[in-house]
C-alpha cells in the first residue's frame, strides 16, 4: 500500500480503494545554490478503482482526488487547493502459477492533465507509465515488486522517471499482515520549470507532482517504511503505512503517511 499510485498490485481484482495520504515536507529545503526553511504538508484524499474485465485483464484508475498543498517557511504564501490529474489504464496477468505462488503482470496507465494549476496539476501534456509487477509467495510470506517508467508527452513541462518498489509481508492472520517496503525514484531527464519562475529546482514530488524541474537528472530518492493490513470482514480491508526518506540531502519527499481501505465488489 506504500506508493499506491505507482506500486500496482499484480493481481486482477474488482475493488473500490479510498486513500488518505499526508506528506510532511522537510524543515529545510535544499535547492540548486542554497537552502531555505520549509516545513508544512501536502494532503491527498483520493479513491482508486480497479475492475476485473476478465480473469487476467484489469482496468485500473490509479490517480485522482483532492490535494491540499500547504508549505510553510519560504513558500508559506503559496498554499494551494484543488483536484489532482486523472490516471487510468490496463494491466494483464502474463504469468499466474498457483502451484509456485507466482504472478507477473505488466501494464500501463496514462495521466490526463485535468487537475488544478493551484496544486501543480493540469499544466502539462500528460504522461505514460509503463510497468511490470510481480509477486512470489512462500506459504504465508510474500515478496512483491514493481518496476516502471514514467514518460512525459512534453519533456519541457515534466521529467522522465524510473520508479521501483519492493515489499515483504507475512500474513499472521486475517486481522494482521505486517509488511516492510522500499520505494525508489530515479530522475532520467531535466525539465525547464524553475522554482517561483527563476530558481533552478533540483527536486521532484515523485509520486504525486511532476514539477518538470531543471536540475534533477540522475538524482535518486529512496524511502523505507512499514505498516500493516487488517481484513476486518470479507468486504472491508484497511491498512496503514509510514515511510521516511533515507537519501541525503533530504528531499521534498520526506515522510509520507498512507491510510487506506479496500472494498471489493
Number of helices: 0
Biggest sheet strand order reads: 1-4-5-8-10-11-12-13-14-15-16-17
Radius of gyration: 18 Å
How far the N terminus sits from the C terminus, by CA atoms, comes to 19 Å
Strand content: over 45%
CATH topology: Porin
Tally of strands: 17
- The total number of structural domains is 1
Low-confidence stretches: none
Shape: globular
Classify the helix fraction into a percent range. Answer: under 10%
CATH architecture: Beta Barrel
CATH class: Mainly Beta
- Return the string of H and E elements: EEEEEEEEEEEEEEEEE
Average pLDDT metric: 93
Largest sheet report: 12 strands, antiparallel, barrel
How would you name the CATH homologous superfamily? monomeric porin ompg
Structural class: mainly beta
Describe, in plain words, how this protein is organized in 3D.
This protein has strands spanning 15-24, 28-31, 34-37, 40-52, 57-63, 66-71, 80-83, 86-92, 95-97, 102-112, 127-138, 141-152, 161-170, 177-187, 220-233, 236-245, 255-264. By secondary structure, the chain is mostly beta strands. It has one domain (15-264): monomeric porin ompg (Porin, Beta Barrel), CATH 2.40.160.40. It has a twelve-stranded antiparallel β-barrel. Strands 2-3 form a two-stranded antiparallel ribbon. It is globular, with a radius of gyration of 18 Å. The two termini are 19 Å apart. The relative contact order is 0.19. The model has no long low-confidence stretch (mean pLDDT 93).
Amino acid at each position: 500500500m506504500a506508493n499506491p499510485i505507482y506500486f500496482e498490485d499484480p493481481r486482477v481484482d474488482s475493488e473500490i480503494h479510498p486513500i488518505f495520504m499526508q506528506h510532511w515536507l522537510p524543515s529545510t529545503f535544499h535547492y540548486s545554490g542554497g537552502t531555505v526553511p520549509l516545513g508544512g504538508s501536502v494532503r491527498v484524499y483520493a479513491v482508486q478503482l480497479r475492475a476485473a474485465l476478465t480473469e487476467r485483464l484489469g482496468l485500473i484508475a490509479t490517480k485522482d482526488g483532492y490535494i491540499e498543498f500547504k508549505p510553510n517557511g519560504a513558500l508559506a504564501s503559496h498554499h494551494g487547493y484543488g483536484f489532482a490529474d486523472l490516471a487510468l489504464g490496463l494491466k494483464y496477468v502474463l504469468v499466474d502459477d498457483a502451484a509456485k505462488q507466482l504472478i507477473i503482470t505488466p501494464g500501463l496507465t496514462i495521466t490526463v492533465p485535468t487537475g488544478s494549476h493551484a496544486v501543480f496539476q493540469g499544466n502539462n501534456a500528460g504522461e505514460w507509465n509503463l510497468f511490470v509487477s510481480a509477486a512470489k509467495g512462500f506459504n504465508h510470506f510474500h515478496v512483491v515488486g514493481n518496476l516502471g517508467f514514467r514518460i512525459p508527452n512534453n519533456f519541457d513541462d515534466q521529467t522522465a522517471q524510473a520508479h521501483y518498489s519492493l515489499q515483504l509481508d507475512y500474513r499472521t492472520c486475517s486481522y494482521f499482515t505486517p509488511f516492510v517496503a522500499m520505494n525508489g525514484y530515479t530522475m532520467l531527464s531535466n525539465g525547464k520549470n524553475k522554482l517561483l519562475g527563476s530558481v533552478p529546482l533540483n527536486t521532484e514530488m515523485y509520486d504525486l507532482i511532476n514539477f518538470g524541474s531543471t536540475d534533477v537528472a540522475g538524482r535518486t530518492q529512496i524511502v523505507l517504511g512499514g505498516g500493516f493490513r487488517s481484513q476486518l470482514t470479507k468486504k472491508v480491508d484497511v491498512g496503514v503505512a509510514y515511510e521516511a526518506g533515507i537519501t541525503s540531502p533530504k528531499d521534498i519527499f520526506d515522510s509520507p503517511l498512507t491510510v487506506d481501505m479496500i472494498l471489493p465488489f
